[in-house]
Amino acid sequence: MATYKAPRGTHDIYGKMALGLEKLDSISRQIFKKHNFKEVITPIFEEASLFTRSIGEATDIVEKEMYVFEDRKGRKLALRPEGTASLVRAYIEHRFDMTEPIGKFFYSGEMFRYERPQAGRYRQFSQMGAEYLANPNPNADAEIILVAKEILSALNIKDIKIHLNSLGCAGCRAEFRKKLVDYFSSVSDLCEDCKRRLEKNPLRLLDCKIDSSKFQNVPSMKECLCGECSDHFSQVQTLLKSVGCDYIVDDKLVRGLDYYTRTVFEVRSSSVGSQDALCAGGRYDNLVKELGGQQIPSVGFALGCERVLMACEQNGFFETVKTDDVVFIAVADEDLFPQAFTFANELMLNNNNIRKNIELSENITIEGPFLNKSLKSQFKLADKLGAKKTVVFGRNEFNNGKIIIKDMTVQEQKEISLPDFIMERIKNLDTSGFKMSAYAEK
Ligand code: AMP
User: Fold this and answer.
1) Predicted TM-score (pTM) of this structure
2) Given this model, what pLDDT does residue 275 score?
3) pLDDT digits (tens, 9 = 90+) for 92-124
4) Domains by residue range for the chain, with CATH
5) For ligand 1, mutation pick of 62, 267, 275, 308 (most atoms within 8 Å of CB)
6) Fewest 10 Å CB contacts: which of 101, 249, 278, 413?
7) 113 lines ligand 1 (CB under 6 A)
8) How far apart are the CA of 304 and the centre of ligand 1, in A?
9) Helical H runs in 385-441?
């Protein structure tokens, strides 16, 4: 029994999940870069008020999910629960509006929310996100949605549905809010959270997990959109249609963060259970100003890496995650250990002359040599590691300037001459300080 376990809601990522995450990261990066998004790496913690102010006081995240702590000087800090607020803070702090002709950025990293853990919902999780700042036009919304879709398609996740809605501007929201307060005031037995939200933030009632099934004929945001917001929304849709991107207009979609204006969206997959949102985002036209910058209308999304990988488990993605071929370096005569060690190091340094000479490709994993193992145990280990080739240093061959290369898949071996320059190097090694007897196999 292990004495310590990872804290509740956190998990260790290893094995195929770690490889999957690496591949997801590299695929997303390629797509972000193709669309000209530039990476910004922000700290994992920020002043707590950055999040309170941007995400909103009356949201689940701020009310009950933030990891807030004081540092030794009494500063109130929080582990970041999401990436947009930090990115916007960096944008304002470094005056990206002056230096970046187009405000396209991406980020990736861990987020922290004190949520009730379940499959697909953790207290520490990873997101990759893109933000398109300083573009108020519907093409920015459409591009953000298409980037998210492109990543999921590149991962071969087929059963996705894009849910789309518009939350309008402050004017539309005020009208909607009034209608919602009228409507919800007549609903009996609201849960405690909803009773509180009815005063502070009635929009939040729409995605209450407890009460939402009780709501029939709830007023729709669509009826409250002003002319400009309505046009913006239909233009986003026209652009999506023009590139053949399917979506569902979902007027119940309100999202859990207060800063959204106009477009909001969520990409869901039926293959991951109840936590089905793989990725979500929307427009936040007032956030930059709210955090102390100019009025800079913007739009972005974040994708939850763990959930995306859960969806990938169903579609054979992990079988496509290839690791490099293992080449194992073995010593038949332990006196040749320093020579084999030096040879392995040359291979590590990507010495193409050697690699070509012994028919190895560019991308290989090199393992060995081991001091305390018989040749038999070394071959067993090479097998366990799935080595494609084993290089053996034997005395007779080495005296003739050669090594043995065993192809582990067909179990055939041949002798190969080492290039002169490496032979010169390892032939003259001073091994006098190396005592083999100290490492005999137990
Ligand atoms: P949000 O920042 O809430 O808009 O979430 C964006 C995406 O992050 C969601 O669609 C999920 O895929 C993922 N996500 C959010 N919260 C969690 C969590 N607690 N655990 C795992 N993934 C999450």
Assistant:
1) 0.90
2) 85
3) 999 999 999 999 999 999 999 999 999 999 999
4) 15-169+226-318 (3.30.930.10), 325-429 (3.40.50.800)
5) 275
6) 101
7) yes
8) 5
9) 395-399, 420-427
